[in-house]
Each structure stands twice: as C-alpha cells, then as structure tokens.
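pinned: reference chain
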Amino acid sequence: MTHDLFRTDAYLSECSATVTAITPQGIVLDRSVFYPLGGGQAGDTGVLLLGDGSEVAIVDTRKGKAEDGSFTYDICHLPAPELLAQLLKPSDSDVVSLAVGDTVTARIDWARRHRLMRFHTTTHLLCHLVPQLVNGCSITPDYARLDFNMTDALDKDALSAGIARLVAAAHPVTVGAITDEELDANPALVKSMSVQPPRGSGRIRTIRIGRLDLIDFQPCGGTHVANTAEIGAVIVTKLEKKSASTRRVVLGFAE
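pinned: its structure tokens
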C-alpha cells in the first residue's frame, strides 16, 4: 500500500521513498507525491532520482490493479515502456539500475501539477455556477471539461465572468473528510453521475470552497489550490451540445 502524501498536501513536490515492487504496471513505492489518474484528473509525470545520480523519467501515474481488475492501494509510476522492460529483466549492461529496496527521491513535474490543481479547483467553481449533475469530466494540464446532465443552453461569457468573480473573491479551499454514514445521509453531496467516492475506509475525503459563504462542498480525491485566487485567469473556451441531455463546458487558461 502506497502512502499517498498528495492527499493531505498537494503542494509537496518531492519526497524520499523506498521501492517496494517493480511490476509490468510500473514502479511501486512505499510513499509518493505522484497523483495517479483518477476522478477525471490526469496522472502526474516527473522523475525518480536514484542514489547514483541517474534518473528514471515517469511518463504517467496509475492506480495498481489486481488480477480481477479491481484497483489496489498501490500507486504505479510508469517509465517509458522500453525502460520498464529493462527494469523487469535487468542485465549487467543496463544504464539504469533499480531494484526493490532502493531509496529514491520521487519528484513531480510541479509546473504541470499546478496547472492541474488550478483547473481542478475551477471545475468545482463550475459546479456552483451550473448546479446540475455531472456525467463526464476530464482535467489535463492544457484544458479541462465538465459534461453537465441538462438540456438548457449555457452562456459562455456569463460563465467566464462568474469564474472570474469567484477567483477574485479569494475563497479558501480546504481538505476535510466525512464518514460513510454522513454521506448516506446527504447523498446530494455527490455531484458526479459516473464516479462514486471510494468507500470502505470509514472516511471519505472532501473539498470545501468558501468558509462562511459556502461555494462548493463535495467528496473529491483530486489535488487543488489552497485559495481560489491562485487559479488565475481561467475562462470558458467552448460550449458544446454533446447529446440531447448533455452540455459540455471546456475551460482554458486566458494567459
């Protein structure tokens, strides 16, 4: 089980870790700052710095999968396919040497992560501006999109102005948790039709935007900025009618 440090502090850009496994799914560490693909948010990229000064570039991060296809609590750091093949069958001629038990420094591409954090927090602002259920989400370093289950038309300029207003208001963004029982008593907190919060641990991670003036509160496992002012200039770049009951909102950076 990988200790996911990003859950409590999204601003950690690196950590020391021990290699616990090298599998066809990737390199597993005992702890990590790398966010794995999930909840619509792209997985982190970065490097593992080895003890001899060499580096292993990580091109993606995914959740581990068991043989039955269910997700495990391991985080798999994926190097390029050819390098992973070499690590799985090491030889004396290998340029990079990595083995179970080695200590590494896991370092994310911080600039890329911060863009993901800004976009992800903006999607929560959109949930406030468009109070409809979400039936699709994608958060990348270059754009983000939310698909809303609705038939009414949306106004691109009005949504961009609403985002700018909430960003300028500098609302705090805080990580919290509720119990399974609290979520059962408040099912409307789940705004996604396609992704349900993980259960079983007894605690479900939440993101709250606003303090006295509540803007958004919902279960979420992603990474976020600490204040909406940190989002900067994000605008709605496109509105699409994806189906009779789906309206897509695409976000981009204005700068």
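why pinned: DSSP finds four helices and 16 strands in the chain. The chain has a mean pLDDT of 94.
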